[in-house]
Automatic annotation (TrEMBL):
Superkingdom per UniProt: Bacteria
GO function terms (MF aspect): DNA binding
Protein name in the entry: XRE family transcriptional regulator
InterPro entries, sorted: Cro/C1-type_HTH, Lambda_DNA-bd_dom_sf
Amino acid sequence: MDYKIKMLRAILGVNQEEFAKLIGVFPLSVWKWENGTNPSRPSMKLIADFLGEDDFDRFMSSVDDPAFQEMAYRMRCKVQNKQIH
């Protein structure tokens, strides 16, 4: 999971703090996920809510899967159109 969070964040063009704000968690949580701690069920729900059900399924697929790449592109467009405060 750690590499997927890192990859998604890189694709979105956001740092850990910005990603945390987008999904509604503390930056320390994102750091932990990227360093080997799996997100809790409530945290996975927050990620799923941010991505949407279909894109969450794609997120959980292999990063080499074209569905993952498609989801990442859509999420990048979503974030670029949204001001992060």
